[in-house]
Amino acid sequence: PTAIIHTSMGDIHLQLFTKECPRTAENFCVHAKEGYYNGHIFHRVIKGFMVQTGDPTGTGTGGESIWGGNFEDEFHPSLKHDRPYTLSMANAGPNTNGSQFFITVIPAPWLDNKHTVFGRVTRGMEVVQNISIVRTSPKTDKPYDDVRIVSITLR
């Protein structure tokens, strides 16, 4: 399946790896369908690295899975952070996936087998790029002007 993240800066089209990461994809899709992500800000943006969202509190400490709490990592040998525009789960250590996710703008091999890769951007790379260069607080990496998820469409 594909997902389109409608952001305040444009649309990001994603291919989701449901076969390789069934639980991660299910978590994302159910949250998306139920509108959980609607209105969430990109709370952490690091120029030349990645953009992160999916936290209802907008602080980086919130969010939970569709099952409540956290769920396990799903690493797959063929899915690596080997190129820009990789969709991956944010976490606080092994098996602590909740609702937060990020999209890279560079290859980031040091994240392999630490963060679950569950999709790739197929269109709207320039939107991800534009989000990644907004002005942010040097202390928190939070954009000064909110960039939001309006909604997510699943196909």
TrEMBL record:
Keywords of the record, alphabetical order, are:
Isomerase, Repeat, Rotamase, WD repeat
Which EC class heads this enzyme's classification? isomerase
**What residue stretches are annotated with the PPIase cyclophilin-type domain?**
1-154
* Catalyzed chemical reaction(s): [protein]-peptidylproline (omega=180) = [protein]-peptidylproline (omega=0)
Q: What InterPro entries does the database record attribute to this sequence? A: Cyclophilin-like_dom_sf, Cyclophilin-type_PPIase, Cyclophilin-type_PPIase_dom, Cyclophilin_A-like
Which GO terms of the molecular function aspect are on file? peptidyl-prolyl cis-trans isomerase activity
One Pfam family name from the record? Pro_isomerase
Q: What is its EC number?
A: 5.2.1.8
The entry's cellular-component GO terms read: nucleus
Family per similarity comment: Belongs to the cyclophilin-type PPIase family.
Q: Which PANTHER family is this protein grouped with?
A: PEPTIDYL-PROLYL CIS-TRANS ISOMERASE-RELATED, PEPTIDYLPROLYL ISOMERASE DOMAIN AND WD REPEAT-CONTAINING PROTEIN 1
The task this protein performs is described as: PPIases accelerate the folding of proteins. It catalyzes the cis-trans isomerization of proline imidic peptide bonds in oligopeptides.
Q: What is this protein called?
A: Peptidyl-prolyl cis-trans isomerase
| Species of provenance | Hyalomma excavatum
